[in-house]
Specification:
mutator protein, 3-stranded antiparallel sheet, 140 residues, globular, binds 8-OXO-guanosine-5'-triphosphate, Nucleoside Triphosphate Pyrophosphohydrolase, 36% strand, MutT-like, 4-stranded mixed sheet, 9 strands, alpha+beta
């Protein structure tokens, strides 16, 4: 509909050398508080998705990312707004992830993602990550 406001959000599946993914538990006082999600945030006006991802990951985790690869996206109506959630696969990064106040970080194997409480839009993204991790394992 003509007055839908798009809400572009970027998020990162940051992977370690063992194929584990970094997830973050949202502060309880925020929207979706207490749920586990992929680190990231809103794309600002005039910003590319990749620049927004690098900025958000630096702000939230104090990590520098390199060469994010698009992995999957989710599209979800949220009242007057419409969430476009873009998930990138990030295998190249530097720094030691540190959580912002109120957030908790956890490394988890993709197979553990279905057991985590996540926002609804994250479910298909987690499934895509799981599917991709199986493929990678099969082909080395
Ligand atoms: N970062 C992130 N946001 C997600 C995910 N899944 C999901 O539904 N969202 C939603 O996307 C939006 C992103 O908001 P955010 O609060 O992380 O963005 P931000 O860092 O720019 O926050 P701010 O507005 O407080 O500055 C929220 O509505 C959040 O619930 C996810 O996996 N990662």
């Amino acid at each position: 509909m003509a007055d839908t406001l798009l809400l572009p959000v970027v998020a990162a599946a940051i992977l370690d050398g063992e194929g584990r993914c970094l997830v973050q538990r949202r502060p309880v006082d925020k929207e979706h508080g207490g749920l586990w999600e992929f680190p990231g945030g809103k794309v600002e006006p005039g910003e590319s998705p990749e620049a927004a991802l690098a900025r958000e990951i630096a702000e939230e985790l104090q990590v520098t990312i390199d060469a994010p690869v698009p992995l999957a996206f989710a599209s979800e109506a949220r009242g007057p707004r419409h969430l476009l959630l873009l998930l990138y696969r990030v295998e190249r990064w530097t720094g030691t992830p540190r959580p912002l106040a109120g957030s908790i970080l956890r490394w988890c194997r993709p197979a553990e993602l279905p057991g985590l409480a996540m926002p609804p839009a994250d479910r298909p993204l987690a499934d895509a990550l799981i599917a991709g991790s199986g493929k990678n394992a099969a082909h080395g």
